[in-house]
Design brief:
Bact_Lucif_Oxidored; two-stranded parallel ribbon; TIM Barrel; alpha/beta; Lucif-like_OxRdatse_MSMEG_4141; nine-stranded parallel sheet; 16% strand
Length: 273
Amino acid sequence: MAIELGKIGIWRHYAQVDAGFAAEAEKLGYGAIWLGGSPGGDLAYVDDLLAATDSLVVATGIVNIWQDEPADIAKAYERITGKYPDRFLLGVGAGHREATKEYKKPYAALVDYLDGLDAAGVPVSGRALAALGPKVVKLSADRTAGAHPYLVTPEHTRDAREILGAGKLLAPEHKVVLETDAEKARAIGRKTVKFYLGLSNYTANLRKLGFTDEDLAGEGSDRLVDALTLHGDAETVARGLSAHFEAGADHVNVQVLNEDPWPAYRALAAELL
């Protein structure tokens, strides 16, 4: 694909990313910023991030198909890529049923949305699909540049690569806490992980990965939190992230959960970039 994401990217809520953040990320060597939190509308903030950088790619992680019509998102895509070719990747997905009143038959809705993007001229190479289950991973291979799985482990990455085959983007997200005290790290990680334990699409995927009802109960077992939130010093965390590459990932986007993320981003850049 023409868009060069690099090896490591940053996943962060779009409201927490500004031009200064993007410029610093690029300076450290990160290839992309993935904007979480269902960014949508005219995506005007993407222009600001790209204007502040020279080569950084901005990706949406993800535009929620229930919130914006494909024709409207296609207009934003055309505007952004017209000014900044090969530096924007449109990530789309169905979100989760508990947060979306209109949520029904998500697979069919995804197909319809991709049809709408086709009709509006958004190229396959310029879009990616949030994908957990094998059916949607296969859809991402057939209809987009590839898959952007969220809240996954290297085991999921290995399975997803088998479905995607060679030549398709696989860009999983993984949470990290730069903290060598395991209890402190788990407390930080658990604050984020526990939210997803009430969402059926994530819990179903975690069960497929071998986690039990006991792991998923309450705020999550230590085993679950440790798997979904890497912690330790920079070398230890970098080794955990590298397991995704060994399993077949092309690009890993890192979500730092420390209150101040920059020490982790800088330390990981020194280890991985």
